[in-house]
Structures are given as C-alpha cells and as structure tokens.
Amino acid sequence: MVTDLRQRLKNPRSFAPPLEGVGFEYGFNTKIIKGWLSYWAEKYNFVEREKFLNKYPQFTTNIQGLDVHFIRVTPQVSAGVKVLPLLLVHGWPGSVREFYEAIPLLTRQTPGYDFVFELIVPSLPGYGYTDAPVRSGLGLPQTAVIFRNLMHRLGHKKFYVQGGDWGAGVGASMATLFPEDILGYHSNMIFAQTKCSTLMYIFGAYFPSFVVESKLADRMYPISSWFAYILEEFGYFHLQATKP
Known about the structure:
Layout: H1 2-10, H2 30-42, H3 46-53, E1 58-63, E2 66-73, E3 82-89, H4 102-107, E4 115-122, H5 140-153, E5 159-163, H6 166-177, E6 182-187, H7 195-206, H8 223-233, H9 235-242
Parallel strand pairs: 3-4, 3-5, 5-6
Antiparallel strand pairs: 1-2, 2-4
Helix pairs in contact: 1-2, 5-6
C-alpha cells in the first residue's frame, strides 16, 4: 500500500497554474500542492506513522455482509473498578484516528473514579478497512443496526455511545432505535430538525427574543448570513448529495 502510494505521488497529473493574485479563492493553489507532494513522497516517515496507527488492537468481523473494521481497547483494572463498554463513532472526513489521543484518557484508571471504559471504535461503512455497501440504501438507521449488532457480537448487550458529525447521526439513531440497549448517548454535534423547529427558526428571524436569549441571538440570526455561508462553503455537500 505504501509503495503504491509513493508511486502515485511521484507520478501526478500535470497541474494547471493558479490564476495570478487569487491565492485559494478559486480552489486549492497548485503551487502549494507540488511542495506537499514532494514532502509526502520523499521525506514523510511512513514507518513511524504505520507504527503509530497500529498501536491499538484492530480487528475485522463480517456483519450483514460487510467486513467491519474496529479498534478494541480493553483496560486492565484493579479490583472494584467497573469497566463500561463505550462505542466511539467518527464522522466525515474523519476516521478512527481522531480518537487516538482520547483512548488513553478513557481507558486509564483515574483517582476518585470507580470506572474506566472499554472502547470499541469502528470505521463507518466505506471508511478505512470497513467495506462499502454494494447496494444503495445504507444510511444512518442501517449503520446503527450494524454497530448495535457489532456490540452484541462482542458481548455487550448494553453500552454507551459517543459520536460526532456523521457519528452523531449514527449515535442518535442507535439511541432512538435501541433505547433498551443504550445506557447513555453523548454527542459533540447536537441537532434536531422537525417541522416545528423549522417554523420556530423562521419565526425567530422576525422576533428573535421569542426563540432565543438576546445575548445568543447573533449566533442564529440574521438568517441571510447563514444562507450566504451555506452557498459559499457547502458546495461539497451538494455535490456529494447529488453527484457523488
């Protein structure tokens, strides 16, 4: 894999020169890309990075026709310390790598606490070493079922879930579909969109104080600034939704 990557880096397509004086306004500046490719191909320490990425135990198991890749870290604890199962779900454009610094903090015994976590960190379908689906229709609820079945296969009938970005969607789906299994759900990306919330949001554009505290109103309004941000920064989202 590394050899193939290096060969690709050394034989890139020709880059069109950037327009004068535009920087990154019309896309990535190709002058910068050339330097990055050279560093990646010639100086980057792949051996060191491979060792780092393999520092935690990794496994694959087949669930509902997909080979699912996951990290599993089981802590060694002293008597009287509870081990709680916790599923960590990454988002886009992320991977299990984003949890590497948090893993030691969650699996290490801490004075004053009588519990630590056993961590199961799967790669989403189509990410890392988890298979991508071969048919359409695999969304958040279906992924929630797969990850719930993964936890059951590992012996955890009840467990905690944490997720951010698309992991938040998966985690919320798990908590909604399987409330008897999920002991607790934590997310760093909370969202709730219903007909009522949408109407309240629009109503707040005219009467913000009825919807949100005055000191927080500038985080939601005016709506025009939010739409401008979507038009400017969410082109990738529209492309992935319509022309993936």
